[in-house]
Each structure stands twice: as C-alpha cells, then as structure tokens.
Amino acid sequence: MYDFSYAKPASLADAVKALGAEDAKALAGGQTLIPVLKQRLNRPSVVVDLAGLDLAGIKVTGDAVVIGAMTTHAAIADSPEVQRAFPTLACMAAGIGDIQVRNRGTIGGSLANNDPAADYPAAVLATGATIRTNRRALAAEDFFQGMFTTALEPDEIITEVSFPRPRKAGYQKFRNPASRYAMVGVFVADGPAGLRVTVTGAGQDGVFRHEAMEQALAKSWSADALDGIVTPADGLNSDIHGSAEYRAHLIGVMAKRAVAVAI
C-alpha cells in the first residue's frame, strides 16, 4: 500500500468535510477498496472510515423496505423483516461472496462502487428503488452511469436505499466459481415501477434493462413467454470466463429461471 491518512468521523457532517480533501476515499465494508489499495491501484490521500456514522439498519413499512447504507449483506440476508417483505432481496444478499464478505460488505459500499458484476444494482434498477444521500434522493435510472461510475459527487455519501415492495420478484445468477460475482444475473420484478427485467454481470457499462423481455412478460408472466427472445452479443462483456455470445445465451437462461422462482 501507499501511505495515506486515516479518518474515522463520528458525524455525517465531519465525514463529508473529510471527503472534501483531494483524492479522499470513503471506506464502507472495504471489500473492494482494501484489495485495490494492496494492489497499489489507488492512491488516496486519506481513507475516511464510515463505520462510526450509524448508517446501518432496516425498516419495513407498508410499501417500502428501507435499508441503511452501512447494513451488511449478512444482516439483509438474515433479516426476518426483509425475508417477509422482500424475500428475493434477502436471497440475493445470501448469495453474495462468502460468509466473510457478507459480514463485512455493505449495500451502500456496493452501490457506490457500482461493479458491473455486482448483484444489488440489478435489484435497485428492477424495483425502481431510491438511493438517498446526505444531499438528495436519486432514482435508480439516474444513479448508475456506467462501469464503476455513479451520479455521486466526491463528497457525497449514500445514507439509505428505499425499495418499493414488489408484488413479485425473482433473481438468478450464473456466478463465477471463484469470486461468486455474477457472470450473468437477471432480476425480474413486477411492482410500483412496473414490470422490469434487469441484467448484471453481462453489460460492458454495467446493469441494464432488457426491454424485449419486459414486453414479453407483460403479456404473460411465464418462463415460456421468453422463448425465442435473442439477446444481441454487441456491448456485452467478453473475457477469460466467457465470451459475449456465451453471456448473451446465459441472459435467456437466467431470465427464465428468475421468472420460475419469482415470489
């Protein structure tokens, strides 16, 4: 690692002030930042630890599941409230990484990082969730802006994520056996934001909606409704784990499985 300063502010205002320094980086669960620092791929002037800001917690209302940004994947997966109100989200969280990652990684850190193979972006975009920060409320459509890129300003901090409760939803992913990131993950949801199908892990620019599948499922909510829909390979990832054509095929397979398990 390179040398850097470390700050652990006790208030949101102090955290925002610390992040105002040039090349400052926020630390949530550290599941991406710490490895990047070890590999010397990032050289922050100061690392701002958000652990003392009291941003963890889960609240369920009649029409929304609201999750604090510093809530861990394990807490979401194990929450009886989430399991009842939004079971697909709990199941998704239970499939992130391994037990060590789930007990350290946070939903806010994952969304702020916006890894193109992360799981949460698919759930956020599929349900039309709102990402709230210390400054504003951002719609999912406005938040994700490309690979590892979001609408967040350098000194802006996610405080919570509000998911409208879907009438039914399902998620399935074909995971990399080593990292357990999604080579392809498909989230289907029918809720207040409408019927949406979102794909993570496949697109070069990150999460995206699959409009052809949305139109097919709007006519008939069944796996068979997706028969014959071909996803173009253009714009999809191609790497040592799978070609763009292979990922295009997986999108159809995972979409059918997501519909089949939707609750």
Could you characterize the architecture of this molecule?
This protein has eleven helices and twelve strands. It has helices spanning 12-19, 33-38, 73-78, 80-85, 87-94, 99-104, 107-113, 120-127, 140-143, 211-219, 244-261; strands spanning 5-7, 24-27, 46-49, 58-60, 64-68, 130-133, 137-139, 158-164, 168-175, 182-191, 194-200, 208-209. Among the domains are: 1-52, Uridine Diphospho-n-acetylenolpyruvylglucosamine Reductase, domain 2 (2-Layer Sandwich), CATH 3.30.43; 168-261, Enolase-like, domain 1. Helix 2 (33-38) links the parallel strand 2 (24-27) and strand 3 (46-49). It is α+β, with helices and mostly antiparallel strands. The strands form three sheets. A five-stranded antiparallel sheet has the order 4-5-8-6-7. The protein has a four-stranded antiparallel sheet with strand order 9-10-11-12, sandwiched between helices. A three-stranded parallel sheet has the order 1-3-2, covered by helices on one side.
